Task: inverse folding
């Protein structure tokens, strides 16, 4: 699995989890403040699209995960 794919999976998981924990209609609801985490993930994805700077990418590179694109 490549870095790009892992970043997409982790970001999607965090968005779904924080929505589940932050939306009152969810059976997982804890507190509406979890929606701030959803906003943080979205803002991080937005800025990384422009700056190409993502903390998860740095961590994954240090762990030796390959950078190549599987679909290329």
Result:
């Amino acid at each position: 699995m490549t870095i790009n794919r892992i970043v997409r999976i982790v970001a999607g998981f965090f968005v779904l989890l924080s929505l589940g924990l932050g939306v009152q209609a969810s059976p997982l609801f804890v507190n509406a403040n979890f929606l701030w985490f959803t906003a943080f993930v979205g803002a991080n994805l937005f800025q990384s699209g422009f700056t190409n700077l993502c903390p998860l990418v740095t961590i994954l590179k240090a762990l030796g995960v390959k950078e190549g694109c599987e679909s290329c």
Residues 3-62 form one domain. The mean pLDDT is 92.
